[in-house]
Input
Amino acid sequence: MTQSAGLHLPAGTGAPQQAEEIPPAAGEAIRDRFIQFGPRYRWLLLLTMLIGSMATMLAATTINVALPAIIGAFGLGQDQAQWMSTAFLASSTLAMLANAWAMARYGPRATYVFGMATFIVGSLLGAVSSTLELLILARALQGVSAGLLQPMSMFLIFQTFPDRQRGTAMGLFSIGVVLAPAFGPALGGVAVDLASWRLVFVATLPLAILALSLAPFLMPKGDLQAEQKKPPLDWQGLCLLAVAVVGLLSAFAGGNRDGWDSDKTLIKVAVSISAAIAFFYWERRHPFPALNPAIFKFRQFWSASIIIVATGSAIYGSTYLIPLFVQQVQGYSPTAAGVMMIPAGLVMVACFPLAGRLTDRMDPRILMTFGILCFAISGLLLSGVTVLTPYWLLVSWIMFSRVGIAFCMPTANTTAVRAVTPNLLASATGGVSFLMQVGGAFGVNLLAVLLQRRTIFHGEHLASELNESNAEFLYGHARQALAMEATGMPTLTAFTQAFGAIGQEVAAQAMVLAFRDCFFVIAIWFVVVLFTMMLMPKPRMQMGAAS
Output
């Protein structure tokens, strides 16, 4: 059956115009849906995908503000608690690369329904978990769902929207992908303050249930010809990738505790690098690779990928650092720390559609350069934070950074996917989502390591200045001791405890300086990324036209 034969519309219904609006890459199943719902189908499908993506991506950050409560409830150490985040990230990245295989073998509808059902099961399991192992399993199930849905949504956007509307559609869809992590801390903080950490796991279930109920009606089935091919799952490649990603994350997370030059850390790094090399050569020879290396032969794709990785690290890294700063340094509640991210999210809502439309009409390099500069300037402003920095001044700086993300993310995603030929579309959309997630995982991981190391460095440096030759220290100690004596404390006790009070002030100042270092590193990182724009060729507007 030819593509035009799939459109059995009666005369007078605008059939020629509709046929022109359906991309040539669209399969028969999607064309049948257009016959049933008309041109509005693409927007109904986009709404369904947006609801599901928001439900799953909210889970990526809502758990962050609940970790202290979970640690207290289960008596966990930080080395145990971090596996809840690692499980989500590792399973989601692996599921992203299995997405193309799942859609080819079972079709978008079955894959989407499986993903949403898995998310619901994982959420319910997390809410009733009584052991750390069950919590880790619940987070892994949520990650599988997030990994399956995100690249599938991008794939369907390119199959249902004509090229002149793809940037707009990608901008709208990006609301769910990026706005959800921004609102996640606020939702998690409210859930913890109102009830308990268990509510965090089920807070997004209404969205997930709505998406699951819409999927059977709007998601297309798989094309018969594609299902008959039944490509095998590249489980060897996925296993090698799992070892590489999880191994490096574990090595970085445990480096401060185990020692960066310890045998344990060096073995993790060596095994991870070996697995990554083996993964690359395995993918080159596999007929159905989990991550097709062919997508990186396009200069437009790999140069845009650098921006995608940087954007992922910016989104997740800043969403991790800022709520942590205002809670640990400025003493705000989890709810207040989460709420401060909402104005930034609203800025993204306003800017994403604009960025998407501009992507369809002008050189994307201009938009990405503007976005990179915005985030670099925001990082530079945040590198000057203090304990007394006003709440709303911080909010304004965060909002400025989100303007940068809004002009980087949909633009870079669309530019990268447009570079490949139609037969590599599924691999490219999965690769783009994978790069975004991996960038976020390593961004959070490395910033957490940097924060801990710089806190120790500044603490030791400041403590070395606290001696009897430091007049300011002696004056401060005497003032603290007198203030304690004024409350009725014995002189000797006040003299001793004044040292402890000064020590707490030093620790707080060391943490402030460490946060400032992290924000400064983010600013420098985006300045470096700005220079990579010179590597990007002038992108063309049609998919597969650039090299």
Remarks:
- The chain has three domains: 18-224, 235-285, 291-547.
- The chain has 20 helices and no strands.
- The radius of gyration is 25 Å.
- The mean pLDDT is 78.
